[in-house]
Amino acid sequence: MKKILMMAALFLSTTAFAQMSEIRGVAKNTTLKEISLFKIVDGEIELMATSSISSTGAFGFLFEPENEGFFVVGYDKLGLAQWPLYLKKGDKASIATDGKWMKFVGPQTPENTVYSSWVNLTQDIKYKAIYFIDPPLSTYKDFFPEFEKVLSQVDAFKKTIKTKNATFNHLMNSIARYDMDYLALNFLLTPRKAHPTEAERMPYYSTIEQKNKFPDDDILSMPNGMKFMRSYASFTGKPKSTLKERSEYFTTDVQKGAYLIEVGASSFRDYRDYTNFVKEYNQYFQTPSLQEKIDAVGKKMYHGSPGGTAWDFNFVDKDGKMVTMKDLKGKVVLIDVWATWCGPCKQEIPFMQKLEDELHDKDITFVSISIDKDTDKDKWAAFVNNMKMGGVQLFAGSAGGKSLDQVYTMPTIPRFMVFDRDGKIVNLKAPRPSDPALKALLLQTVEGKTGSTVVQKPGLPPGFKMPASMGAQKPVSTDAQKPVSNN
């Protein structure tokens, strides 16, 4: 009986393993330390796992896909270094990258054999269309001829899409069509040293806008699906068209819902904007993934809007005592999120100490929250002691730092935040202690007044210009501050 059970267990284990998909890769001539795997949900990528890169450059992923389709390997969630590949349960794929280019290596599945041909055909123009800051700083004068050369080969490529997988064949044909549109539009709608006039544009641009452009939801299964949808709506729409008018370029409720969340959520000023948005568009957020996304936006807006309730964190202080946000209720609270490895953070410490001295008789609690690595807790404690840092000193560690970022969206540190006596948000992007405006804001809050939010403006490299026809695109950040993570 035991032998039978053992054989059954071995069979189940072997069967389960056969459902696992495997990606093996090598990163050469690059300083990358880790690389990530993403799945595609509603036209956007979502992180699945991260793999360390060995000293020999090797990395890998072993997982069971929920559904067959495209997955993305890369190290930049913003989209600059992402390399898609197609996987079904039990598939294996081998790739190589130098941090810039990706290629398939060795025998592949029939699907990735076809897709690798597409990658080889389009990789040069893709790089020029997306990496607009990298040399040779491509302009329309060199890009248009190369694009048209690739375009002349697309029909011949489509004739090679003849695998036994009808699902892949259908999606690959859509990609061959949409990818060319996406690259042409991304090139046109990103900053360049020189931009073409309408008369200088390729004839191809006149073919992009089409009635019933998206007859099915294939676009939401593609690695750059949402980016293309944003570009298409920006290119096709009138300069002063509303969000609702632009959403009409899309066909299904799922397409409209995904686009509305992606574009609309970035314009919310407060929680009231969110509730009004949901009231108007909730009919489009009926799938589980879209409902989850809009709910997450609401939660973040609630925690991130002036007047919203502060997140009740729970971190240890320098004496080993747990401190929560609720413990600080009753006084105005200034929070400084920092780390010992962050140069700009340490530059603010003397100003913070001076501010504490000047406002020592006011109802203000000064709190510093470190997001140093868990292994650097002793280093943090010694630094706090040596610098004679006052106020409430808390250690959040790496996990706490990620939680803070999820709640308050902190792409950079130091981050200074002000809360009133009732634990309500006053300003999540407050001025630094070196700026006199912070002292004024704290005094206003003590007196029961509300300060205004400070918004840092992104910039572009010198010499770059935005195209005159560009619609509402996400800004390119050139913030030189340290990122939240030090990995």
Automatic annotation (TrEMBL):
Region (Disordered), start-end ranges: 452-487
Thioredoxin domain boundaries: 304-451
A Pfam family: Redoxin
The keyword Disulfide bond is annotated on this UniProt entry: yes
Keyword Disulfide bond: yes
Signal sequence region: 1-18
InterPro entries from the UniProt entry: Redoxin (IPR013740), Thioredoxin-like_sf (IPR036249), Thioredoxin_CS (IPR017937), Thioredoxin_domain (IPR013766), Thioredoxin_ResA/DsbE_sf (IPR050553)
Biased composition (Polar residues): 475-487
Cellular localization per UniProt: Cell envelope
Name this polypeptide is given: TlpA disulfide reductase family protein
